[in-house]
Amino acid sequence: PMSVKIAPSILASDFANLQSEIEMLNASEADYIHVDIMDGVFVPNISFGIPVTEAVNRHAKKPLDVHLMIVNPDQYLEAFHKAGAEIISVHYEACDHLHRTLQAIRNLGCKTGVALNPHTSVSLLEDVIQDIDLVCLMSVNPGFGGQKFIENTYSKVRQLKALIERKGTSTMIEIDGGVNENNAPLLIAAGADVLVAGNFVFSSNDPIETIKRLKSLKN
Ligand code: DX5
Ligand code: ZN
């Protein structure tokens, strides 16, 4: 099987030295750059927005995986597309008309992503999974980096994997929150395709080596 994909989250990077952080990721084995957008409404925190995403994209040699933790995402899809997003993930809990939102993302030429909060059942994707390129399973409550991994995530990965296989889609499974080298092998074994890692990468002594280690893990 292919090795797991790694998406370091720049939420944990040094914002005053973003260019060098992006250059570090360019030089690493990272597959994506995970960009966490928080609006202070959907989640109790504010991160950064469209101009910063655009600035990151100017230096990035890896595709941007943009995670929108915002209400009314439809209003901003085109702006994030123009800012360089390759994948745009919206939250299931923030979309009254998820199918329409996914069509809008697809029509922009981006890959479609749907993020699920820890309390949101994978079974709710039964009738929309065929329109999703990536499901982002939140393994913490969104809003902050550096939180503790929620163990129930393993069973959600297995359920999602079963749904994807039953429907015959090529949807990727991404895990976001509290990922480290202890839970990563179990997540890969359960069916994870992409691991987001914020603090585990950026707080390590050698982020490039840490990314390499995560990527080489087998289940
Ligand atoms: C949480 C964000 C995550 C977070 C991951 O709201 O969506 O992407 O930055 O950071 P760590 O790996 O530190 O939990
Ligand atoms: Zn995220």
Quick summary:
It comes from Rhodonellum psychrophilum GCM71 = DSM 17998. The chain has 219 residues and is α/β, with parallel strands linked by helices.
Describe the 3D structure.
Helices cover 33% and strands 20% of the residues. By secondary structure, it is of the alpha/beta class. The chain has one domain: Alpha-Beta Barrel (TIM Barrel), CATH 3.20.20.70. It is globular and about 45 Å long.
Features:
single chain, 219 residues, alpha/beta, 8 helices, globular, binds D-xylitol-5-phosphate, binds zinc ion
Low-confidence stretches: none
Report the portion of residues in β strands.
15-25%
CATH architecture: Alpha-Beta Barrel
Name the bound molecules: D-xylitol-5-phosphate, zinc ion
Number of strands: 8
CATH topology name: TIM Barrel
Helices and strands, in N-to-C order?
Answer: EHEHEHEHEEHEHEHH
Number of domains: 1
Distance between the termini: 11 Å
Helical amount: 25-40%
Q: What is the radius of gyration?
A: 16 Å
Structural class: alpha/beta
Average pLDDT score: 98
Main sheet specs: 8 strands, parallel
